[in-house]
Amino acid sequence: MKKTIFALALLLAMTAQAQNDTIGVSKFTAIYQYCCKTTNAAGEPITDSLLIAVQTANGVTKSFPYNSYNKQTKKKTDSYYTQKAAQMHMGDVFLNYPEGRITVQEELYPSLYQTDEPLQKPKWNLSEQEDSIFGYLCRAAEAKYRGKTWKAYYTEEVPASIGPWKLGGLPGLITKVEDEEGIHSFTLCGLLNEEQPLIFTEYLNWFVPQMNSGKMSMARQRIDYQKMNAKKFLKHKKKVLGNPRYVQNPTYYAPSAMEAFGYREHHLSNLSDQQIISVAGVIVLSEGHAYQPIEIE
To answer: Is 0.85 topped by the overall pTM?
Structure first.
């Protein structure tokens, strides 16, 4: 079968249909600015940035890229943010789902991964230090978590013991948290008081091109998450992303999209005016930044 690159508007607009489970209804959504200090392929310092949405319902907390939240709520999205989430290795994090566990869904070309681990909350040391963040009176706390020391500020004015990524468990909403090295930081920048379903995606139904008797058609393909123990996946990420070759060629470790799948999807970003490439819903990065693990263990 002749391999073809699809860049037509029809395929640019392709979207996945997901098999979703609604865990509950979140009464509000907290928005955080996630920043990661790293270097580009030339070794120059650069700060990557991404908005993160955090919801909570029925004892479950979900932290996920804000672009996905916009897609869920049928607001304007852009493939630039999907690419940035992949570049910053930030997926969907579910705390206490299932009960007593942490589930993370993350993409790493050429696959979608789902990891599972026991729910372990940071053991915070509270202090009397105060600050004003996003208009809230906040107090400081510190904890060692996943091999890093984190300093957080929280406000009891929002009585929700949640925060971004896997961080939470304080007497109020986390408004700012940063690791000791100043590499990773999350800062509250929005609080949306609107009810939205908290959704867990079981798998994707993706539409892919195929040739039948010399004619092109679209076929539905189920895309499952590759399930893996969290420690094993972290080890895999360190091996793949920590290799010096990664920043020069982010897909050095796997066949190209054309070799592996026989097609690739092109998405024009209105924000960056870039052609962003994906395959079966997974971003194919063209530019890598030095891997800065958010967790060591």
So the answer is: yes
